[in-house]
# Entry
Amino acid sequence: MKAEELRYDENGLIPAIIQDIENNEVLMMAYMDKTAFELTLKTGRAHYWSRSRKKYWMKGESSGHTQEVKEIYFDCDKDTLLIKIKQNVAACHNGYRSCFYRKMDAKTGEVAIICKKIFDEKKVYE
# Structure
C-alpha cells in the first residue's frame, strides 16, 4: 500500500484512529496527510498534521510520550486509518493515557471522568 492509494479528503487529510497494540484501548484520533503518513512509515513513529497549528508534528516531540507504530490498517473505502501503536506514557495532552477519558451517560447526558490523570500537563508543556 502506498500513501497515494489512500483516499484523502478535500483538504488532503485522512483520519487516523490510534489504538494500543497490547490492550486495544483507543487512545486518540488525529489527521495525517500523505507526507505525515510517509514520515510515519519511514520512521516507525507516529506523525500527524495539526489542523490548528498548520504544521507537522511527531507524537511525543514535546512530551517524550512517543508512539511506536506496530500495525497499520485501513478501512474498505481506504479513507480511514487504524494504527496500532506502543504508547510510551500517555497519548492525551491533558494528562490522561487516552484522549477518551470522559464518558457521557447515553440517557442523562451526564459526563464523568473515567480515567486517572497520569501526568501534569502544565509541567510537561510549559
